[in-house]
Design a protein that fits this description.
Strand content: 5-15%
Shape: elongated
Number of helices: 9
Order of helices and strands: HHHHHHHEEHEHEE
Distance between the termini: 72 Å
Number of strands: 5
Structural class: alpha+beta
Length: 231
């Protein structure tokens, strides 16, 4: 006899409380979540098809709902629930930055940017604003989706420099489906951005690129032009 949805939910809850989250595979964990959060009982079929198509849990939750919906067995509710996991993962990742207050250290810069961009599914370009002694004043999203870094208008950065007047700044962007090696145009635009920042009495101290689980710092690799003395 086919297991009823209510029985399946109770069984999965019992397994979770008795054995803990580590006892579940990624596929079982996603099935467990979908089973508890949706009205459908066919979560196993949907999970099997999702893993067969996308390979792993992180790729699944980073995939847009409209693409998930094309998979056999994945309903609108299931795709929306999976997208919710992605939103929660982004929020939890960014919360890790609460303990980071200063970005003098390059490794902390890379970690800070990684926590912001690691789960984004389209290219995001952000400008991190720093106060005296490179203490974090916040960050602003300059662009997202459809525009690569080297094609962003300088006026979008100039607006932040003129209004917020940061002493230092770090620009960052992500390559969601690729490596983090900068292009020649990335390097050229970064140097122009450094000059623009100097016009507003701000020092661009780094450009961080986040790739597929990789991080690249212009400062660490000697690619950032100094247009103002850094304390």
């Amino acid at each position: 006899m086919e297991e009823r949805l209510s029985e399946k939910r109770q069984r999965l809850k019992r397994l979770m409380f008795e054995n803990g989250i580590d006892s579940f595979s990624d596929s079982e964990l996603l099935e467990y979540y979908l089973c508890l959060t949706t009205a459908g009982s066919n979560s196993k079929k949907a999970c099997d098809n999702l893993f067969s198509t996308f390979g792993d849990l992180e790729t699944i939750v980073k995939t847009e709902p409209r693409m998930l919906r094309t998979i056999d067995g994945v309903t609108d509710v299931l795709s929306a629930s999976t997208a919710l996991i992605h939103t929660l993962m982004c929020m939890m990742s960014e919360e890790k930055n609460n303990e980071i207050k200063c970005l003098k250290d390059i490794s902390l810069r890379k970690e800070y940017v990684y926590n912001i961009l690691r789960y984004e599914t389209v290219e995001h370009i952000v400008l991190i604003k720093l106060k005296k002694n490179m203490r974090i004043a916040g960050y602003e999203t300059i662009s997202k989706g459809g525009v690569n870094f080297s094609l962003v208008s300088p006026s979008q950065f100039a607006r932040v420099f003129s209004i917020d007047k940061p002493e230092y700044a770090i620009v960052a962007h992500n390559h969601p489906q690729g490596d983090c090696i900068p292009s020649t145009r990335d390097i050229s635009f970064t140097n122009k951005l450094s000059e623009l920042a100097a016009d507003f009495n701000c020092t661009l101290i780094d450009h961080i690129i986040i790739g597929d689980d990789t991080k690249f710092s212009f400062a660490e690799n000697g690619l950032i032009r100094k247009n103002k003395i850094v304390d």
